[in-house]
Amino acid sequence: MPLTDAKIRAAKPSDKTVKLSDGEGLQLWIMPSGTRSWRLAYRFGGKQRGLGIGPYPAISLSAARRAREAAKRLLATGNDPTGHSTVITVALDEARRIDAGASTREAATAAAVAAKQREAVLPGESFREVAKEWLAKTSKDGRAEVTVEKVSWLLGFALNDIGDKSVRSISSRDVLGVLRKVEARGRVESANRLRSVVGRVFRYAIATDKAENDPTVALRGAIATPVVRHRPAIVDEKPFGALLRAVWGFEGLATIRFALKLMAYLAPRPGELRLAEWPEFDLDAAAWNIPAGRMKMRRPHRKPLPTQAVSLLRELHEITGDGKLLLPGQRVWTRPLSENTLNACLRRLGYSGDEVTAHGFRASFSTIANQSGRWSADAIEKELGHLDEDEARRAYARGLFWTERVDLIQWWANKCDELRVTGQD
């Protein structure tokens, strides 16, 4: 049974030490001399340990219980309370002020001590450490490396301001301050994404008993909603043909020339092509097997290859086939082309960011293929790697449309060649 002050006052000393238990290891020892002191019994590293808390009544029952709770939090994070006496002392100081019925000024001091206790950063409980742990878990869960890198980049906006704070002490106001700074730089979309990512870190902290709440919940709608902007793309045949002529006339780095041509012929997501590896390609079977980790929907995707792409890939293999990457970077061949390289090359060709991006080749393919009226919308969507929202239909359709997609992508490659030639002098 838990102790009460009445039980403690009624207990008498004996010729041997009397031990009164309050539960969960907290004991009041009454010595033969009449001295009474609090001790906490616990196990650490497989061994029984004891921690002296202090004398009674100088340390009240409620104060001793607060010290016990502080010690339990330390043990939960793998720390020996004996080596972290400051945390126990802070808990006792706060309890003394409460028990003493402090004056208004003393109460303010007690509140400051309580805040200090909340802000005391236990090992492994800073936002920086929890975020790092969550990122490692995200990577182990199979998220694409590029996705983990983007999330890590986003979290970088928060680490300067709240990285070293305890996740238990971070408030909605703290997080809002971080988001406001990002928003003030014109990065409204990044600010919204950052709120979501920070929320995921806090939900992980709650699940691992390092925090009690998610301060981002109260921030929904607190910052501006980003204006949805579709990626610029050329979807009319005549100007698209002009773009293709510019691409085929590009005289820069060989890997970039091949990359732009393959973007036109295959309409993949830029990241799917930039990070592609040679083992994914079966040129004899004219197929590209993109692993799930690099697909936006986290499902493997098999793309048919038109004869033009197979020919390009055989040429490219003569240049980069000794390595792992299809399109290695210019300086370090163990790293892929950077994310901005393809868009930068389109700028060099005279196209602004408001006219076209590398991702825009997908919209060109989708629009022109749909407008032709020759292909089913399902086959076009499947070729683009879009995921059917109907789970049952998705499972049924997994192997469908392959034959149509083979014909579709060959038609598209022929169409690109036709548009590229049309309009030339």
Give the strand order, joined by hyphens, for the main sheet. 1-2-3-4
* Percent strand: 5-15%
Biggest β-sheet strands, sense, barrel: 4 strands, antiparallel
Name the CATH homologous superfamily of the largest domain: Intergrase catalytic core
Q: What features would you describe in this structure?
A:
It is a single chain. The protein is an alpha+beta fold and about 425 residues long. About 50% of the residues lie in helices and about 10% in strands. The protein has 17 helices and 7 strands. The strands form 2 sheets. It has a 4-stranded antiparallel beta sheet. A hairpin with a 5-residue loop joins strand 2 and strand 3. Helix 3 (about 85-100) runs antiparallel to helix 4 (about 105-120) and helix 9 (about 235-250) packs across helix 17 (about 400-420). The N and C termini lie far apart (about 95 Å). The model is unreliable at about 390-395 (pLDDT under 50).
